[in-house]
Amino acid sequence: MLRIAMVAILFAVGSSVSVAKPPADTNYDETKVPSYELPNALIDNAGQSVGRDEWVAHRRGEVLRMFEDSVYGKTPSRKLAVKYEVVETDSNALDGRATRKQIAAFFGDDPYRLDILMYIPNQATGPVAGFVGLNFNGNHTIHADSEIIQRGTAKARGSSASRWQLEKIIDHGYALVTVHRDQVDPDNYRNDFTDGIHPLFYDEGQTKPEPTEWGSIGAWAWSLSRVLDYLETDGQVDASRIAVIGHSRLGKAALWAGAQDTRFAMVISNDSGCGGAALYRRCYGERIHHMIKPVGYWFCTNHQQYQHREHALPVDQHMLMALVAPRPLYVASATNDGWADPKGEYLAAKHAGPVYELFDKPALSQSQPPVPDQPIHTTIGYHLRTGDHGITAYDWEQYLKFADPYLSKP
């Protein structure tokens, strides 16, 4: 029983570690995908068809509330006092190619600290566009740069550098901004919501979120918006041209951040799977009941009621992507990542199309995913990369190419 549980945990977190097998009831057979009918994003809760005006006026808000109530939980609206302190800067980082900034953001009366790491290309002649994303293992792991402050993790310096492709991003003219996920809300499989940012929002006597209040994905998404708040104060960055990006569970957070915060100019999901880009109703690869025991804290408690009942969800992930419209959206998958259901990720992006079309934005038209390594770039981008669960140089090449028409100066 212990071995089965550990296998479930490893698959649930999108581990690249080789394991003997997924949970026994995992479906990787397309012929066993149940028939399903997706909720119509353009039929409101009163049963009425909506056009562009109705989508903007009320339907978008309905969809957002359904995701809050049944999937991610509601993010607190309370504003915390915040103070920013630039603790380190170097205008000659990366052999002169970039300016490195390290900012401590202090939230609340008993200050809670988040460390923001920024790299800004020195070739820029004015405020630059950029990418914002959370990292898994500490700011110091995104590059071997010895001056990056290391806090709260013993992971090796530069150990995640391949996932960030910092020089490639800088040379392309974009800034990169990141925060360590565990500084926001620890992802430790025993999360009791006492050692992250949740307690800053508790009412008197409260010790955990209510059933419809945010879990860890909501907290991570909240932090991405707080980074954007800071960027609005930094004259070297154009905060109106920022893409939010995430891989795996942090891809789920990036999608939820982009859905809630329309200030993000672009949203990118890399291998985010169940609870991220993949359609729940396909019941392929990872499913809700696989996640609830080891990582149920990612979601609101209400999400538990949909175990083995995906068809009862009032939403599906095409509607999450529709909340990004009309802004550009990119979804990426990997051929060896069946756990994340690449076909389900593509279909969710495709079925977001009708909302994009309300805004006269081209969407995905072909009924099936493209062949591997043949990206599609419309307002909704998609590629299926050959290889394993991960974010690679190839993925970043597509994101940079896709971003140029949207994030470049008008």
From TrEMBL:
PANTHER family: DIENELACTONE HYDROLASE DOMAIN-CONTAINING PROTEIN-RELATED (PTHR22946), POLYKETIDE TRANSFERASE AF380 (PTHR22946:SF9). This is 4-O-methyl-glucuronoyl methylesterase-like domain-containing protein. The keyword 4Fe-4S does not apply. Residues 1-20 form the signal peptide. The lineage of its organism: Bacteria, Pseudomonadati, Planctomycetota, Planctomycetia, Pirellulales. The keyword DNA repair does not apply. InterPro entries: AB_hydrolase_fold, FrsA_esterase, GCE-like_dom. Gene3D superfamilies: alpha/beta hydrolase. Residues 170-358 form the 4-O-methyl-glucuronoyl methylesterase-like domain. Keywords: Hydrolase, Serine esterase, Signal. It comes from the Bacteria. One of its GO terms (molecular function) is carboxylic ester hydrolase activity.
